[in-house]
Amino acid sequence: MRHLLRPTDFTREEIGELIETAQDIQAHPEKYAHVADGKKLATCFYEPSTRTRLSFESAMIRLGGSVLGFASADSSSASKGESVADTVRVVGVYADIIAMRHPKEGAPMAAADKSPVPIINAGDGGHQHPTQTLTDLLTIRSEKGRLSDLTIGLCGDLKFGRTVHSLITALIRYENIRFILISPDELRVPDFVRYDVLEKNGIPFEEVDDLEAAMPKLDILYMTRVQRERFFNEADYIRLKDRYILDRNKMKLAPEDMIVMHPLPRVNEISVEVDDDPRAMYFRQAEYGVYIRMALIMKLLGLEAPKC
User: Active-site residues: which are they?
Assistant: First the structure.
């Protein structure tokens, strides 16, 4: 039995296979309509989510399976003091696979120690978000045609942004990857990413605070929102939340083949006037998330793709 807790739980080769399966699902969805007949996915979400939870549910239903679960800690026995370990031991009796989101870093790892079924980390605090990373890799591979030889600008909340931490960890395994980390001083990437991931592996990166100056250098611009729920001080959030706003004028500075990504939800960091730019990929990115989660569910449950 395998779990997906970190982006590096799968090898490059396995991620390549997942991407190939996801692309085949996108091209031939009817082939996969009954692959998971009789299987059940439990979504145990202790923290609010729209895209991730519904994407998992859509993925399982499109495979022919069914879904159960809860959408907040208040609607589960966690409100009565039940531990994560006890919850998954019980839910694992009802379901074949569990997708878990939790505000505490490491909670899915603790769950995996006790779970009788595969656990998928659907986001734990400000730590990791491996299925968003798989979504991002599928988006990049589909839209840029490669996962190597890329300059990626990561902009906004790089301190608390678990999608950023996961994406950096995953992309350093590919050739000729370079990062431009765009943030105010208060929201720079944490030390464990800077030292243990980037510097330790000799990955070229620079930390800047000027989005406009970075734009002409980028193959990919990955925008993030400043996350109100991660701040302890409301005044700091208000001061930083509109530090970067991508608009039509800034897009004029970007290469014609640069793509804009965002894990969503957005607040003010991407103006709606950018939505019609052909380089804006964030809504298509959300669609890719369904296909890659379908492929992931199949892999963890040992389900084979149809031959026909």
Answer: 51-52, 80, 101, 129
